[in-house]
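[audit] Reproducing an earlier prediction to check determinism. Same input, same settings, fresh worker. If the tokens differ from the archived copy the diff job will pick it up downstream; this log only records the rerun itself.
[audit] input (169 residues):
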Amino acid sequence: MAWIGVDPGKKGAIARISESGAIQIERMPMVTGAKGRDEYNLPAISAILWEWYNGTGLVTIEKSQPMPPHMRGGSNASFHRGVARGWEWMCAGMGIPYILVSPVQWMRIMHIGTPGEDTKQRSILAAQRLFPKANLMRSTKARKPDDAFAEALLLADFGRRSSRAEKVV
């Protein structure tokens, strides 16, 4: 069994926790598209999902939320909703079980006991507390832990906790 967490942003990450507790974290696979814009590398993403899923597991995807009313709408909001739906469609098409969770849902559980107001910093602190040996650095040149790596790992653990809670009931 593997639990996979997805922080779906272009600077996001994908994390996996195996049944044995081994951790893998990858930056979001991207390619340079038209006009030099980064685009999701869909074949690479599907290859990671399929390899990590390996016939048994659960993918937890952070569901993009609509922007506050004073900032709502436009192509940016549509893009973010589409990103979450794209992950959902990919998992459904590959036959991989998944759940969508809002940031509020998973942070309510995973940030318990973590001080501060900045949710990105709280994610890093929570991931370091729960997985002290996990490498949260985006690259070998990074000077500080990456919040996308931390959040993907916390999403994987949220999925693990959720799937185990269902079995107990």
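[audit] rerun output stored. Observation attached for the diff report: The first helix runs from residue 42 to 53.
[audit] end
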